[in-house]
Design goal:
The chain is an alpha/beta fold and 224 residues long. The protein contains 6 helices and 9 strands, in the order βαβββαβαβαβαββα. 23% of the residues are buried.
Amino acid sequence: MRIDILTVVPQLLESPFAASIMKRAQDAGLLEIHVHNIRDYSTNKHKNVDDYQYGGGAGMVMSIEPIAAVIDKLKGERNYDEIIYMTPDGELLEQSHCNQFSLQENLIILCGHYKGVDERIREHYITKEISIGSYVLSGGELAAAVLVDAIGRLIPGVLNDETSALTDSFQDNLLSPPVYTRPPEFKGMKVPEVLLSGDFKRIEKWREEEALKRTQERRPDLLE
């Protein structure tokens, strides 16, 4: 899978993909992440990528020309399944989005900045708009890193135990049940007896009941 990220601050994306699972995925050739500096496509001698907004108002707007130039270049080299814009007013990111994106071959992610991008980019280039929450960040880079991580871990072979992702929270509209590891007792706090029983049928039933209970208590909206 290949993901191209378009940004005006590429330095913000160095660390998230340089360690742990995302680094292993890239080293294994399962995931390619390419970061493109939009400023490299500016024809302005000062490499500006923003301008004042028509009609007045506070805040600058990302210019159409350099963004269109990098997207056109990439699309001329390969076909892209989605061109995603990270924006606070996009669709709220859900596990179902991540599942769908992980099945694609090539994605472009555009990181917003300032007051956003020229609306013509959204109308004519973007195929999907995604938000990671009802709040505003200083830029779309951190949101893009969240999205790439959520997608990348679902690619077959990325996780050591491929079944692990299938039991994550939200995969079946339920939160994950409680988990425990050794020791079986710590300062009087004990692991539930059923998990030590070796009766996998009982354990599975317990996990289903606990997942439902936790979801009802913490995220009842998932059950609606």
